[in-house]
Amino acid sequence: MEHSDVIIVGAGLAGLVAAAELADRGKSVTIIDQEPEAFLGGQAFWSLGGLMLVDTPEQRRMGIKDSRALAMQDWFGSAQFDRPEDHWPRKWAEAYVDFAAGEMRPWLYNMGMRWFPIVGWAERGGGFASGHGNSVPRFHLTWGVGLGTQEPFVRRVREHEKAGRITLKFRHRCSNIIMENGAAKGVAGEVLAPDNSLRGQSTNRDIVADFELRAASVIITSGGIGGNADLVRKSWPTDRLGPAPKNMLCGVPAHVDGRMVSISQQAGGHLINSDRMWHYTEGVKNWNPIWPNHGIRILPGPSSMWFDAEGNRFAPPALPGFDSLGTLKAILDTGYDYSWFITSQKIIKKEFALSGSEQNPDFEQKSWKEVFKQRIFNKQATPAVEAFKEHGEDFVTAETLAELIAKMNALEGNALLPFDKIEAEIKARDAQMDNPFSKDAQIMAIHAARKYRGDKYQRTAKPHKILDPANGPLIGIKLNIITRKTLGGLKTDLNSQMLNAAGEPIAGLFAAGEVAGFGGGGYHGYNALEGTFLGGCIFSGRQAGRSDTIV
User: Has this prediction a pTM greater than 0.85?
Assistant: First the structure.
């Protein structure tokens, strides 16, 4: 006997979107998740809440001219699709850009979602118009950050739950997709013991019972592998990036474990592009951790100077905020798994933001007063950034460069950073501040950034000499590699229906969100443009929920 029309495995953003859309169609839905009810919304809760939207009122008000054609050029220049199995990822990429340039904003707006008026400019690119990067600012920060992106869908799901169309079963861990005659017919697994851990913390895996649920369709929305260091290392693209780092911070909770990938493969699902992944280079150890090895990413503006472990300045496009994977390769090519920012108080005051909803309470609480106080008219960096400067073990401060370099060397327990070489590099950079011209690519990038009103107001400090005491203190920050997103995934068609190794649809079996590479098995290709992770969860979840193959 079927318990519902559809079973969804995973109560994250993609699962919530799919469930809401299905219930709107009159379908009965059961959502299962291995975590407690307090974890509803999954990994998206911890996000900054950015969405890539195209040609929006927010962009136009900031003087940004964007278009579907330009966004498509940027996407494909970044994705660099080059494999036969990229057929469906290409189709998903085209469909997402069409969505982002069309129905996405009005649809979300009508559900109550709003965005900060200053559009962010993430992933500014690798140096060529035909290559990786956003030609214009497209990062729309949701008012309410990660929680704000979930609110409309949580509300819709809860309304359907009250009406009896959606059932939520927490602490239900799927271990098997029931297949009969080549078609999905339900799921089976274990009921885990109750757990009162706070959202994001590791929970117990104590089994108290078994379960089996039946449905005509099953949708897997269980997320990626970023919380499972073993799977990350197993999938690491050694041919492109070299050996995996010995030390990595974890940018997502432990429940992002990737276990449903292999379970879906056992049911006939086909995993593609598993070597494509997205990790950040600006990770710092969280001084107040929530999950194991908890790392926080610094979202930098363009002004901090970036050095490798031996004090060599990175060459463009390894500039703050420009090319994440290009910079990752540059760091790993040095033979070390960390790097350094040298910056000033004046820079971090205006340019530093931190990933994570909990690091941005002004945005999370939708407080205009606090946003203006902390980010526009601020005399210090945001309280969260200042807390890391004071308590974070990767941060050191000093009044002089010599003292700073000594502290940085002591922090790592070596003498790899040579004072004379670093001083000469910073002095040469500072000399470029004596006139409005420059041959330094980073200085040119700073001047270019400040031509955009959003960067001038909020994200790019006025050019200044880093070694001028008036701009201090000086700050050194050890930057670690931090795991984040799975770009490859289970292959799906535009209905979010899983495809087997022969490219044939698997009856009754679907996937959406990160487990499907956000669509098709990896609609990003090799590079992400940012705002496309949450956006991909929303879009692929919607495609699954509206699929005409779920009857």
Answer: yes
